[in-house]
Amino acid sequence: MTLTRRGRVVRALLIVLVLLMIAVASGAVYLRSIGVNGTSHPSGKVTFTIPKGSTAQEIGRILTEAGVIKSAFGFRIAAFLDGGFEDVQAGDYQLPRGLTARDALRELVESGPLVAHVDVTFPEGSWLTDFARIVGEKTHISGDSFLNVVTSGRLPSRYRPSDVKTMEGLLFPSTYQVVDSDTAVSLATRLAREFEKRVDALDFSEAESRGLTPYQAIIVASMIEAEARVDEDRPKIAAVIYNRLDQGMKLGIDATVEYALGEHRSELTLSDLAVDSPYNTRKYVGLPPTPIGAPGESSLEAALAPADGPWLYYVLADCEGHHAFSVDYDTFLRNKETYQGLDC
Predict the structure, then answer these.
(1) Helix or strand or coil: residue 228?
(2) Which end of the chain is less congested by CB atoms within 10 angstroms, N or C?
(3) Which residues fall within 8 angstroms of residue 265, CB to CB, at 6 or more apart?
(4) Contact at 8 Å (CB) between 139 and 179?
C-alpha cells in the first residue's frame, strides 16, 4: 500500500517522536549513571575544603575525590540545570558520602561551610590579666584590646556596681569556642552573659541575711576560689571568712596580697605581706574592693551556703590540698607546723 503524503509526514513525526523518547530515556539513564538524578544513599560523613574562587568543575572534582558524589561532570550538569552554584561559599564542609549531584549541590548551598573555631579554656580563679593573656595567645583577638574592654566600664553587667569599672570576677571561667568573626567585645560579652546566666540561678538569701550585696558575695567567692584546692573545703573557708567578718578580724588571705602585688607568686615575703593596698586583707579589715579572680560555680555556691562551724583559721594539712580548720590560734600554729613537716 502506497502512503499518501500526509501518511508519510505522520510516519516521519512518529519516528522523530520515538527517537526523542529514546534520547530522553537514554539521557535519563545517563544522568542517573553519573549521579545527577536518582536517590541519595548517604553514609559516613567526610570533611573537605572548597578553596575560594573554585569553579563548578573544580568543586565537582573535590566532591568526587571525597566520595560524596559519583562524577565531577555530573556536578557540572546539576549546577547548570538547577542553578544556585554561585551561592556556594569557600570554606570547610562536612557532607555524607553517596549523594546525588543535585543533593550535594543543595547541601552545599543550604548548610554552608563549617565555622572555623578554636576551643579556649579560662581556668577558675583567673584574673582579668590572665583572661587577656590567654585570649592573646590562643585566638586572633588582641589581648590588650580584650583587657581594655573588660576594664573600661563599657561592658554592661547586672552584678557590677555603678562605681566599679572592672569586670574582675564577673566573667565565667570555662571553655568557649572562639570563631573568626569574634571581637574583643563579642567574646567579653559572651563570658559576661555566661556568668550572669550561672549566677542568676543561685540563691543569695544567705548572703543578704548577712548584710552582703550580690557583688560582695561574689568577692567572697573569688577568695574561696583562690584559697581552696578541694571542693569539700570551700564551704568551710566561706565559714572562716564570714566568722572573721562578724568579729571584725582581718581576713588575712594571702591571695589578696598577690592580687595587690599584681602577679602570681608561690611564696610571699614579709615586705610583700606589708604592701599598702586596699586589697591587702592582712593590713586592712573587711572585704577587698573587688573580686580577686573569676570564681567557679562551686566557690559561688560555697559563698552562698557556708558550712556551719566556729572556725577562724585554716592551713594546708596534706599534700593533696586539704586544709585543717581550727577555732584558736594555738591549734592553727600546731597544724601549720605539722604541714611544714611534710615532704610535699
Answers:
(1) coil
(2) N
(3) 258, 272
(4) no
Residue 147 backbone dihedrals phi, psi, to 5 degrees: -60, -40
Question: Amino acid identity of 74?
Answer: G
Name the residue with cell 570555662. Answer: 174
Type and span of the H or E element at 314 = strand 313-316
| Average pLDDT over every residue of 268-273 | 92
Q: How far apart are CA 229 and CA 173, in angstroms?
A: 16
What whole-number distance in Å separates Cα of residue 152 and Cα of residue 165? 6
| Contacts with 287 (C-beta within 8 Å, 6 or more apart), sequence order | 216, 219, 220, 245, 251, 281
Contacts of 40 (CB under 8 A, 6+ apart): 98, 99, 100, 103
Nearest to 234 by CA among 151, 319, 124: 124
Going by pLDDT thresholds of 50, 70 and 90, the confidence category of residue 153 is: very high
Q: What is residue 193's predicted lDDT score, i.e. its pLDDT? A: 97
Segment 95-105 shows an average pLDDT of 87
What percent helix, strand, coil does the chain show, rounded to 5?
50, 10, 40
31 to 41, 67, 109, 146: CA distances (angstroms): 16, 18, 21, 55
> If we measure between CA atoms, which residue out of 299, 326, 319 comes closest to residue 226?
299
Q: How far apart are CA 215 and CA 195, in angstroms?
A: 12
The contacts of residue 318 (CB under 8 Å, 6+ apart) are 339, 342, 344
- The values of phi and psi at residue 93, to 5°, are -130, 160
pLDDT tens, 192-241?
999 999 999 999 999 999 999 999 999 999 999 999 999 999 999 999 99
pLDDT at position 10, please? 46
Give the span between the Cα atoms of 64 and 15, in whole angstroms: 39
Q: Which residue from 247, 245, 246, 267 is spatially nearest to 257, judged by alpha carbons?
A: 267
**In Å, how far from its chain's centre is CA 164?**
26
